[in-house]
Predict the structure.
Amino acid sequence: MSTVKRRRVKRRYDGTQRKEAAARTRAHILDQARRMFVARGYAGTTMADIASAAEIALDTVYASVGTKSVLFRTLLETAISGTDHAVPAESRDYVRAMQAEPDARRKLALYARALATIHGRLAPLVRVLQEAATADEELARLWKSIATRRARNMRRFAIELAATGQLRPDVSIDEAADVIWAMNATEFYLLLVTERRWSKEKFEVWLASAWVRLLIA
């Protein structure tokens, strides 16, 4: 192998190693940040605390995940998507499965199953956000933007339900979207699973059944 080719291979190898190392560092920071936010709250956790817990230089933390508010948003988005990076709703596996399913009842069951899993990851962070948003305008805007995005996505979902021809004739698309939006909120999950101690399995089955009773002819 020529010297030029060896150098090219080495550069590609080194570049891959650097990317993998950066991804591991980022994942480690996110894990430590999630743990600290849940334990101490948003105001009680500093970026220096996270850097210390991760045993990583503070500058590296900022370079890897951004500012504190950006970091927290990343935690929310990755909890929703179930990956190390935020994934748009239309690219998530469960959304694709719902879109491919022709039966409205099965669509709702698939969504209820996905929510039970998502909220298991998301609920602790939402508790932190609820407490912090009252005193932090940036987090309040974040919370509002997430709620608005959910509403927009649920209207798309309601249109898909209506397209099956199985939506109740006395339920409009807007009403169906609002009902699903209200009941898919993490606060709803917290009330039943955390406060009333329902199992996730019970929550999933009940949610799908309730949606069918309310929305499907």
About this structure: DSSP finds ten helices and no strands in the chain.
